[in-house]
Design goal:
The protein is of the alpha+beta class. The chain is built from 14 helices and five strands.
């Protein structure tokens, strides 16, 4: 029987005692009668009565095909009772991701519908004010909607409303401390404010609450490396950038960072007295996709030539 590694993380909000009790009864009944207790997540561990939530901090478990399917099917039913939140489930075989499911509320409840419409507006560049109004309506209806605060924070950040964005991201984190997007957003706000120590703390929190199969994990790693450089921790920045360049997860959206990170890593290796590693980093930077935020090709070539001149044989 094949065994996999399963990772589950997230939070679901049920919004009322009635919905919470219903989902608890459904979970226990189906676990015992349909699945004969072959479920990865036990209810006494994940259900939080005081807050009427289902909370799963990043949890890594060995799993068979049966356990995976039973748990997935049961959680797909559970999410229909929720008013906010999301759950991510990954299945890996020898480190290779073979399944990923993101479960979110899709019911006809008004709050759910408002949030989904608002999220569409957030993704449209010219509808920021409407998106802000929609997300404000969502949190006025359900004040524990961490995703709505995060999305409102994103719009405020895009508009340059840093104080409002910081408030929204912090509010989201206070409701759901498991959501990496809120830490990433607040980290960007702190970086723009010039508080790189707090920014580093937030980017570190992203990596604790995400996995390397998510783009946000590596986006936060790049931002964390930048923060380490800003606060005088070049060795830590070198370690982070090196990890980024050696990542096994090929996520297309991350390729845009390769030229800049390779160049920065080359500089750090050169200062650390590792000319061969520096040369390899500069060479990788030259072959990476072009990026307007990265140094120009001529600058990278000049750095490589200067390195070779200073270290013959490289």
């Amino acid at each position: 029987m094949s065994e996999y590694k399963v990772i589950i993380a997230g939070q679901l909000e049920f919004g009322s005692e009635r919905a919470y009790n219903q989902v608890m009864e459904q979970y226990a009944h189906r676990m015992e009668n349909y699945y004969k207790n072959d479920i990865l997540l036990k209810p006494e561990v994940i259900f939080k009565e005081d807050e009427m939530t289902l909370d799963v901090p990043r949890t890594v478990l060995p799993s068979t095909e049966r356990l995976w399917l039973n748990t997935l099917n049961l959680l797909e039913r559970v999410v229909t009772f929720s008013i906010a939140g999301s759950l991510n489930l990954w299945r890996l075989d020898a480190g290779v991701m073979i399944d990923h499911y993101k479960l979110e509320p899709k019911s006809d409840r008004t709050t759910v519908q408002l949030f989904n419409r608002g999220r569409e507006l957030v993704d449209q560049q010219d509808n920021e004010e409407e998106a802000l109004k929609m997300m404000t309506r969502v949190v006025s209806r359900f004040e524990r909607h961490a995703q709505a605060y995060e999305r409102r924070g994103f719009v405020n950040y895009r508009l340059g409303n840093d104080d409002d964005a910081h408030y929204d991201y912090s509010k989201s984190i206070s409701i759901n401390p498991l959501m990496p997007e809120s830490y990433y957003g607040r980290g960007l706000v702190n970086a723009r404010r010039g508080d790189m120590t707090k920014a580093a703390d937030d980017f570190e929190a992203v990596t604790r609450n995400s996995i390397p199969h998510q783009a946000i994990y590596w986006m936060a790693q790049v931002a964390l490396g930048d923060a380490y450089l800003a606060i005088g921790r070049p060795n830590d920045a070198m370690r982070i950038f090196s990890m980024f360049t050696k990542r096994k997860q090929r996520i297309a959206s991350l390729d845009r960072y390769d030229r800049r990170v390779g160049y920065q890593l080359g500089q750090l290796y050169q200062k650390a007295g590792r000319p061969n590693d520096a040369a390899r980093a500069f060479e990788a930077s030259l072959t990476a996709p072009k990026d307007p935020k990265a140094p120009k090709q001529e600058q990278i070539e000049e750095a490589l030539q200067g390195l070779r001149a200073a270290s013959p044989g490289v």
